[in-house]
Amino acid sequence: MPRWAEQVEWVHLGATPDAHYNYAPATPEMLNRVRQIESICDLHDVPLAAVSLQFALAHPAVASVLLGASSVRQQSRNADAADVAIPQSLWDDLRQSGLIRPDAPLPAAVRSTGPDQR
Question: What is the pTM of this model?
Answer without folding.
Answer: 0.77
